[in-house]
Fold this sequence. Notes:
This protein is mainly alpha-helical. Helix content is 77%, strand content 5%. It has helices at residues 2-11, 14-35, 41-62, 77-83, 89-111, 117-138, 145-170; strands at 69-72, 141-144. Strands 1-2 form a two-stranded parallel ribbon. The model has no long low-confidence stretch (mean pLDDT 88).
Amino acid sequence: MLAEILLRIYCLPLWKAGVLVLFAAGLFCWMHRRWENRRWWRGTVLVLFLCWSAVVLAQTVWLGRTTQRTLSLIPFQCYLTVFQGGEKELLRSAFMNVLLFYPGGILVQSLCRSCSLWKLTVLVLLGSVAIECCQYGFGIGTAETDDIIHNTLGAFLGMLSVRQFQARQRS
């Protein structure tokens, strides 16, 4: 069932997927503003983070679609391929990776308010590297540097948006 839901989201037009993620982020910011001082809120954010992590792991590791072990270490290979007339689906995949990790960035920043943006970005980068290593090690897809770049970018943008939201809230 989870695989079907994730596939339906993946097949949405890019603008609809983007709106869906931004709506969820806006809803989270509204809830955060309203309930951040409640004792139970931090635990709720932790549960949301664990659920998001499970979805990411399900999408990238547990629900591996191939038994082929491939490695792509060339940064931005997807853009090079598309610009050379290759498969345009690679751009969708790159954008969806950004969207997939955007909520994770929001949740990580909300849980680790006092951590620097640099440290959290490195933490997400290492988590993304771990996912790609699992994909390669278990032979369940292509381990790509592009995925690491786009995953980290998505989480970074999520963390940045929380920081902007918090700065506006203080002023």
